[in-house]
Amino acid sequence: MFEIFTLFADWVTFSLLALSADTKLGDATHFFIEDVSKIFALLLVLIYIIALLRASLNVERVRDYLAGKNRGIGYLLGSSFGAITPFCSCSSIPVFLGFTSAGIPVGITMAFLLTSPLINEVAVLLLMSLLGWKFTLLYVVIGMAVGILGGLFLDTIKAERWLQSFAAKALAKGQAQQKNTSTNPDTIKMTFVERHDFAKAETLEIFGRVWKWVIIGVGLGAALHGFLPDGWIEQHLGDGQWWSVPVAVLVGIPLYSNATGVIPVMESLIVNGLPIGTTLAFCMSTVAASFPEFILLKQVMQWRLLATVFAMLLVSFTLVGWLFNAFSSFL
């Protein structure tokens, strides 16, 4: 299915650019062209198809649906909605305020927000094509588990007491009004033309937002693939040393990316011998524990809550890395 992209990369790299397949530059260029063309094609075709299916989904309906659920179901649903609703750090404040204003507990809101940057339809489709269904399923399960357990932990410690005052008031007001508020469960009916227009607009909007991250991610992956000395990662980090996982988590924090842009890097690291657990910890840290998102969340959270969420994520990603390094032989 993807042979056409390999042939295209062969033609551009070895015929059009006249690079040698035996050189590091030729190898890195071929990797870059093949992965960029493959990912761009997947983005344009598959985002459109998925957008047709979720054309009627909007944040208001998700918010209203979650508002009436108990905590246990709420964590699962919050994480599930986060996985199918593409948000990045720039959306964190309006989403957070929208959910708290509806009276949704902080833990359920955070289950949504923690899962959303880690998992989206683009990331899942790219992972499936690049790394196979086993790794994709593993990534989805871990991403949702981080959201669910994180939300449960934050509700257990009553994290709402550490919200900024205006956010705490919005939450209290929303919970007080929740009993008197009726929601409309009916799904908005859309014609095929309306769904097509929605899907086309969303495809262009998402592609316009992520294409640069794809190029950056694939470029870094190509550099690692083509210019890193053969066996360097395997020699220094390939044994899955215990300290390599927390170091990978800390290194990933300032290297902000989204799930789409980090996937080619993930692929290249695994191909070059980095253990799957260390790779997973690094990429999850890059996507979900980045400085930009926490700077924005500081507007609605006090330092104590922000530090708690930050520490929770670092510990979670480190444990995930250790766990999957230990059981990597079964993957």
How does this structure look, described?
The chain is an all-alpha fold. The protein has one domain (3-177, 190-329). Helix content is 75%, strand content 0%. Helix 14 packs antiparallel against helix 16. Belongs to the UPF0718 family. It holds the Pfam family ArsP_1. InterPro entries: DUF318, UPF0718_permease. It is found in: Cell membrane.
Summarize the structure.
With 331 residues, the chain is mainly alpha-helical. The chain has helices at 3-16, 24-53, 59-67, 71-84, 92-101, 106-118, 121-131, 133-156, 165-178, 192-227, 232-237, 244-252, 259-271, 276-288, 291-297, 303-326. The chain is 75% helix and 0% strand.
- Sheet/helix structural class: mainly alpha
Number of domains: 1
Q: Helix and strand string, N-terminal first?
A: HHHHHHHHHHHHHHHH
| Largest sheet properties | none
Query: How many helical stretches?
Result: 16
Number of strands: 0
Radius of gyration: 21 Å
Shape: globular
**Could you give the distance between the termini?**
24 Å
Overall average pLDDT: 77
* Low-pLDDT segments, ≥5 res: 182-187
DSSP strand (E) fraction?
A: under 5%
Portion of residues within helices? over 70%
Task: Map the helices and strands.
Layout lengths: L2 H14 L7 H30 L5 H9 L3 H14 L7 H10 L4 H13 L2 H11 L1 H24 L8 H14 L13 H36 L4 H6 L6 H9 L6 H13 L4 H13 L2 H7 L5 H24 L5
Question: What keyword list fits this structure?
Answer:
mainly alpha, 0% strand, 16 helices, 331 residues
